[in-house]
Amino acid sequence: MKARTLTLLLIVALACGPTTPTSNQAATNDFALAELQVKAGFLYNFALFTTWPTNVLNGSTNAIRIGVLGQDSFGPILEQMLRDKRVDKHPVEIRRYTDAAAARDCQVLYISCSETGRLPAVLGELGNAPVLTVGDMPGFAEQGGMIALVKTNDRVAFNVNLSAARQAKLSISSKLLRLALKIVEPIPASVSP
Known about the structure:
The chain is α/β, with parallel strands linked by helices and 193 residues long. The protein is 34% helix and 22% strand. The strands form two sheets. Strands 3-4-2-5-6-7-8-10 form an eight-stranded mixed β-sheet. It has a two-stranded antiparallel ribbon with strand order 1-9. The chain is globular, with a radius of gyration of 16 Å.
């Protein structure tokens, strides 16, 4: 467990470092690449510090699937960074989805900003499937997403909707929760965001 904690702390340190780009185009591209790498690292660490129901990963050879729904801004970064990574004994596998219902077979799902207008429908299609939902669109956690990546002071941090994770029978480690910027409650369905 100490190795996992160290890995998480290294990713958080990366995320908390200065990320303000300079004025030239190369620095802007480096900034965007670094931000995507930090987000990819977060996705992996969220998997390390989440526990799924026992029937989800019932064999040591079953892969932990990290999926991207919608427009994929990661490109090859996820594969490059997570190649040969494991979560416990499970290899990490990357998948892309265009349909939320098909994404019910993954364990961690990054919901792209391209799905902002469809977020309630996407979360509805996922229902209470044991899928850890992650996104960086405004109000993601408040609308029922589980982990929202947010930029604060030019750094990437995250908020957690613990009740949404519990409804999906997911357990998020207290070590990860302590690093969250805040624990949010969802907006009631009758109130618009």
